[in-house]
Every structure is written in C-alpha cells, then in structure tokens.
C-alpha cells in the first residue's frame, strides 16, 4: 500500500505569523481560515488576516477587518495601528495621526506607533512634537528592540534603521533623508 500523505500541521498563531513573514500568502490564508474556524471568538486570526491583506494591497478588506476587530475590542492596539497604516497609505495624514494616537493611548509603550506618529508630525511641520515622538521611540526601543514592537502583527521593522533615523531627527526634525541624498549626490 502507498504511504499515507503527511498530515497537515495543526494551525497555530505562531505558524500563521511565520507563513506571513516568509511570504507564503496562500498558506497563511489557509492557516488563518483554520484558526478562525476553530475559534470564531479569537480575534488574533482576524488581526493577522487584516495585516496580510494590507501587505498584499487589499486595503478595503484590511480596513473592514480592522473595524470589525475594534467593534469587538475597542482597545485593540493592533487594529488601531493597522487603520493608521491604511490611512497613511491613502495619504490621509490627519486620520493616520488620529489612529496612531489612539494606538498609543491603548498601549503607551508601542514604539512603532510613536515612530509613525513622529514621521507624520515631521511631515506636517510640527518639529517639536515630532522630536518628542522620536525621543519616546528611542527610549522605548532601548538596546534590544523587538522588530514587531511587542505586537502580534509580524511587522519586522528595520530596528537599526529606525534607531538611526530617530537619532538624526531628534537633533533636527527637518527632512533629514532629503539632505542626506543631496550630500551623496555631490560626491
């Protein structure tokens, strides 16, 4: 008799996160569906699906899922962060600022929300407030920052690059990258 096909692994949140991180989108959707079927009250699979939809540019679906999460858990920092990222993607900086502030209110030590808020404030010309957010980001990141910001979402943010930008912008919240590129162009 032919050997039995290998059993599919039991879907877990960590496994679904790993699939997302490794760009295995179809498998991630399958794992998320299995998790949602197993426990419809668990909001974590919904969060991962909303994040995955954001990553593959399905913005409307990501927003609908994030809003559904907030209806069940108004303090979901991840849902607020996702809605902030979606607003930023639409160039709706006012809405993005509101969502990042709400994420910070829900979880004051959410350094990714502080960083994104700092970037938006810098662009809006609010240099002092932007510098404050960059300082908070640096303090919260400490020496060994989690690239996911301690969140369920597999953000995998470039911690070293963010630390570098924050350090530069604490001294001046001007458009540092533009100045750096113009200096490089003169070589």
Order of helices and strands: HHHHHHHHHH
Q: Please, what is the oligomeric state? A: single chain
- Major sheet: none
| Low-confidence regions | 173-187
**Gyration radius over CA:** 19 Å
Polypeptide structure, described:
The chain is mainly alpha-helical. 68% of the residues lie in helices and 0% in strands. Residues 173-187 have low confidence and may be disordered.
List the SSEs and their pairings.
Layout: H1 13-21, H2 25-38, H3 44-55, H4 59-72, H5 77-89, H6 93-106, H7 111-123, H8 127-141, H9 159-171, H10 176-185
Helix pairs in contact: 1-2, 1-3, 2-3, 3-4, 3-5, 4-5, 5-6, 6-7, 7-8, 8-9
Characteristics:
single chain, elongated, 187 residues, mainly alpha
Précis, in short:
The protein is 68% helix and 0% strand. It has helices at 13-21, 25-38, 44-55, 59-72, 77-89, 93-106, 111-123, 127-141, 159-171, 176-185.
């Amino acid at each position: 008799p032919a050997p039995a096909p290998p059993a599919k692994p039991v879907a877990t949140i960590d496994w679904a996160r790993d699939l997302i991180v490794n760009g295995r989108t179809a498998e991630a959707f399958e794992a998320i569906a299995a998790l949602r079927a197993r426990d419809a009250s668990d909001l974590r699979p919904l969060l991962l699906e909303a994040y995955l939809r954001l990553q593959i540019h399905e913005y409307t679906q990501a927003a609908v899922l994030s809003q559904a999460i907030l209806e069940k858990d108004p303090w979901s920092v991840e849902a607020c962060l996702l809605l902030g990222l979606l607003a930023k993607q639409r160039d709706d900086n006012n809405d993005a600022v509101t969502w990042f502030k709400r994420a910070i209110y829900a979880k004051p030590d959410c350094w990714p929300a502080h960083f994104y808020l700092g970037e938006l404030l810098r662009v809006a010309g609010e240099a002092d407030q932007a510098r404050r957010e960059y300082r908070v980001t640096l303090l919260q990141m400490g020496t060994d920052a989690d690239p996911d910001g301690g969140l369920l979402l597999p953000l995998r943010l470039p911690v070293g690059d963010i630390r570098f930008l924050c350090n530069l912008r604490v001294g001046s919240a001007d458009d540092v990258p533009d100045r750096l590129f113009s200096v490089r162009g003169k070589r």
